[in-house]
Amino acid sequence: MGMTVEPLSQIRIVLVEPNHPGNIGGAARAMKTMGLADLAIVNPLRYPDPQAEWRAAGAQDVLESARVYASLDEAIADRQWVVGTSARVRRIPWPLEKATTVAAGIIERLPTHRVAVLFGREASGLANDELQKCHCHLVIPANPDYSSLNLAMAVQVVCYEIYRQLEDSSLEPGQWDRAPATAAQVEGLIGHFESELVASGFLDPANPGQTMTRLRRLLTRITPDETEVAMLRGILKQLGAGRKG
Ligand code: SAH
To answer: Where in the chain are all domains bearing CATH 1.10.8.590?
Structure first.
């Protein structure tokens, strides 16, 4: 079919602290079969490793170009749409959708957004603070009594879902006048809010409650563009200066 794979280069698969090198290789292979090539690995336990190469089979190129990061923030700093995958529902509700719906949302954004899809540790998945960096959470519908897929297989299902929907889609360019804010810009804004909220006495660092989590959820839900982030930071700065002056 006359599909261009170029939009797929906008999608980064991020493995957070995988324990088994075999799963890294398996993920690389899963990606390549679906036309994806941008693999990021955060703090792998064992990597590089012959088991990774062995499981990657014909996808050595994806493995060789994979980048290893010391933190999740670095791996997603330039991303503008971040999806977390999870087999479980978490305590603070976050937008949660099935893989088909999330894949459609990703494809809709490909003309304008650099995307990351995060996958968690084999034993414990993604931590709450990692899931809270995401715009939405993706669940692969599965047996309610045993819903946890092998890591590389979860990567396969998600990449397949994106690939098959992209084949049928006509990518329309986005209409917005400004670039969507990156994860690093939103982190900067949240950090700025936090320090000003503490300085102003609104937030008690000894007893912060859920304020920052709720603010983070609000700021990711509204998906600000980079001009809006700069404007909010300018406002915070002036309000802080006004209080001190
Ligand atoms: N025991 C862990 C699951 C780890 S499975 C937990 O309870 O969270 C390793 C990773 O594969 C998960 O972090 C997630 O990224 C992905 N995964 C496995 N099953 C999934 C499912 N049903 N839906 C979405 N992601 C899944």
So the answer is: 183-244
Structure tokens at 12: 């980064």
Task: Please tell me the residue having the least CA distance from ligand 1 atom 3.
Answer: 125
Separation between Cα atoms, residue 35 and residue 93, nearest integer Å: 32
Correct CATH for 8-167 of 3.40.50.1820, 3.40.1280.10, 3.40.140.10, 3.30.43.10: 3.40.1280.10
Query: Closest residue (by CA) to atom 18 of ligand 1?
Result: 149
**What is the pTM (predicted TM-score) of this model?**
0.93
Among 90, 150, 85, 153, residue whose Cα is nearest residue 119: 85
Separation CA 72–CA 133 (nearest Å): 9
- Euclidean distance between CA atoms 68 and 201, whole angstroms: 39
Kindly give the distance from the C-alpha atom of residue 201 to the centroid of ligand 1, in angstroms, as a whole number: 39
Distance 127 CA to ligand 1 centre (A): 11
pLDDT in tens, 198-243: 999 999 999 999 999 999 999 999 999 999 999 999 999 999 998 8
**Pocket around ligand 1: residues whose beta carbon is below 6 Å from it?**
85-88, 119-120, 122, 124-126, 138-140, 142, 147-149, 151, 154
